[in-house]
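Input record (Table S2, row 416):
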Amino acid sequence: MTHSANHALVFGGSGLIGWSVVDQLLSGYPEKNSFAKVTAITNRPVNPSETQWPEPPGGRPELHLVSGIDLRSHTQNSLSQVLKDSIQDIENVTHVFYFVFTSMADDTEEVEVNRKMIEVAIDALNVLSPNLQFVVFPGGTRGYGIYIPGGTFRPPLTENMVDNLPQDYARTCVYPVFRQVLSNASSGKKWTWCEVCPDTIVGFTPNGSQFSLALHWAQYLSLYAYNHGIGPHTGGLEQPDHKIKTQVVVPFPGVEAAWKAKNTPVAAKTIARFSIYASLHPKECGSGNGRGQQLFNIADRERPSTCEELWPKLAAWFGLVGVGLPSPADQMAPRELPGEYIEKYQDVFKQYGLDKAATSGVSAGRKQLDSVGTWLTFDRHLSLDKLRASGFAEEPDPTDAWTEAFQKFREGGMIL
Ligand SMILES: NC(=O)c1ccc[n+]([C@@H]2O[C@H](COP(=O)([O-])OP(=O)(O)OC[C@H]3O[C@@H](n4cnc5c(N)ncnc54)[C@H](OP(=O)(O)O)[C@@H]3O)[C@@H](O)[C@H]2O)c1
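Output record (NAP complex):
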């Protein structure tokens, strides 16, 4: 088998999708020799021993981790200099996985800041990396109008719907701007690009994440289990004032309609694998050549999931019994949402030396993630027809992503 010279550059290498792209490349996906080198770029510092990335088979691809590159603080010129100084073989970068996103309170500012970051990065690479072949970036179901109460389109959501997004709403969302930036920057160049569009992304990050529902619910369920005398830390130390119960019920943190709403979650691993697959299949997956913009919905399974199906399985991993709404008697009692619960009890993490759990949870998104059970009360499942037509056929069980992430959170000291 021939060894390729491909060099992957992953922006946002410690984020929800970026971490997984690096993980899959180092695991030898799609083949051990598909890439010679992976450079993972992060903004916040990352301790290599905490990444949980595997040793690549036979030492290929090589990994280079470059931390401390804050894209917000750069112009194209200053970023070019930094990339040139810090990335070995920048001139041989062939595939770029751009998984950076900064959430901000003000939508207009958020669009502008994220536009500038991708623009300086791609403009710098247009100068520094003449062998560039492909760029992948993420969109999301926000781009189908799910932030409008009740949703915007009737599911299954298909890629062509993004063209009919109400104008006022479209202006609050950065994905159309990303498409424009990539179309302009690739014009007349030999590289092309695609966008991947997930709903809820389920995966591990070593450093916390802005909108990781898996981490949010994992911290909630682990503290809830602990407070009810269940879990790996409940044997050793003195317990809180609770009796150990054999059947501890944890109601879904939300309302009936959200419990029943159809959705299509996706493992970060599945997004990573498709992103790599797409980057290696530019004819089928790239934009241009009459194909227009290439946007691909992505999910683990064509058949939609519901929280009704998922919640009991997630709770069971923590030794709990996950149910829908609280019993009629308990419905009258005020309920603490996961974010409030985590805040109230996070000292328990510190008590067990899990400082990282207390400091590296979800950041910007805690409130938004709490509203998943109250606001996402409508069906929003994605059509996977275009994904399947691209030749990508993987269909993992959606529950696996959650339990694999929970295991990694535990190994990484982010939950009890
Ligand atoms: N989370 C979901 O369930 C979900 C669902 C649908 C779509 N999406 C989309 O997927 C994308 C990523 O999602 P996320 O926000 O949940 O991921 P995330 O895990 O918070 O990752 C964001 C990444 O961006 C990097 N980043 C942020 N500011 C940066 C800066 N100034 N300079 C350089 N890098 C910077 C972060 O690096 P550091 O950590 O090093 O700062 C991190 O690696 C977004 O476009 C989001 O809209 C997410």
